[in-house]
Amino acid sequence: MRCDLSELSLGLFDALWNGDLEACLEQVDAGFSFVSPLTNAHETARDQLKSYCQRARSLCKVLTYRVLEVRRVFETDDTCTLLVLGNVLDPSRGTSGFRCTFVWRIHPDAPGLVHMHFSLPLASPEPTTDAFTPDVQPQDAPLILRDTDGRSHVVYRSEVLYLESRHQYTIVHLSERQIRVRSALSELLREFPAYFVRVHRSYAINVLRIDQVARKEIRLDDGTRIPVPERRSKSVREEVLDAMVRARLVSEPGSIAPPPRNEK
Questions:
Q1: Does residue 256 carry a pLDDT above 90?
Q2: Sign of the CA dihedral 57, 59, 61, 67?
Q3: In whole angstroms, what is the distance from residue 103 CA to residue 101 CA?
Q4: How far is the C-alpha of 145 from the C-alpha of 153, rounded, in Å?
Q5: What's the chain's Rg over C-alpha atoms?
């Protein structure tokens, strides 16, 4: 029996919004992963989902949501990726956009959820616009990467933490794996969206995954520390901030405080 994955995703999003952990876990398949700005990336996916639902139960009492669009962004015989776009309505702060990605594995009896990614951009959409169009295009349309052993990997660009140059190779770093490809960093970077910024001759980072910007390094949300050349500290910070503004993570320049002057 073929399920309506759009309706299934909408029902699951409503359960997620209301913090209904049991309803969410009923849909989870083997190898499930979960990404959210409200959870600890070092926890297991099920623990993150549990933590998120605990926090959502209080948030849903003061916030409401409106779904604007459900979009199928990628589909094969055994998987389907859907993107749910909408608005969060806060009586005190106004309206902001959200997006939630669901990746389903298709089984003969029923689909199973293998990945869920919930994002809440901090900047509000323009008040005169009723539809939400995220500036962060997922470009997922997944990227197919062939590693140095000849194996092909399906990679969603938004899930890449950073790219690292090593001689004639580039290492693509994700939360749970690394992929070595025979390509120069500058060449591979052309395949990634504008929210990837080259902060060092050997590193390009995903600004969506930044936890802290300091004078000599940038810390990502998984704890990775990326060095920043001291002579380029100011220009790197400006490039990162500009990319974050364009990605609607912050509303205006100056929203990120400069690092303390006494930092060593």
A1: no
A2: negative
A3: 7
A4: 5
A5: 19
Q: What is the pTM of this model?
A: 0.48
Closest CA to 166 of 149, 178, 153, 154: 178
| Res 93: pLDDT | 65
Helix (DSSP H) and strand (DSSP E) numbers for the chain: 5, 15
In 3-state terms, what secondary structure has residue 187?
Answer: helix
d(CA 47, CA 40) in angstroms, rounded, equals 9
Q: Is residue 63 classed as helix, strand or coil in its secondary structure?
A: coil
> Collapsing DSSP states into helix, strand and coil, what is residue 5?
helix
Longest alpha-carbon distance in the chain: 64
Q: Which amino acid is at 256?
A: I
Residues in the chain: 264
Looking up tokens 């962060």, which residue turns up? 136
pLDDT digits (tens, 9 = 90+) for 146-187: 999 999 988 888 889 999 999 889 999 998 899 999 999 999
CB-CB neighbours of 2 under 10 Å: 7
As given in the structure block, the two tokens for residue 58 are: 């209080």
Give the span between the Cα atoms of 200 and 236, in whole angstroms.
9
Q: Taking residues 191-215, what's their average pLDDT?
A: 89
Structural tokens at position 145: 């990467």
Least confident of 6-20, 131-145, 186-200, 203-217: 131-145
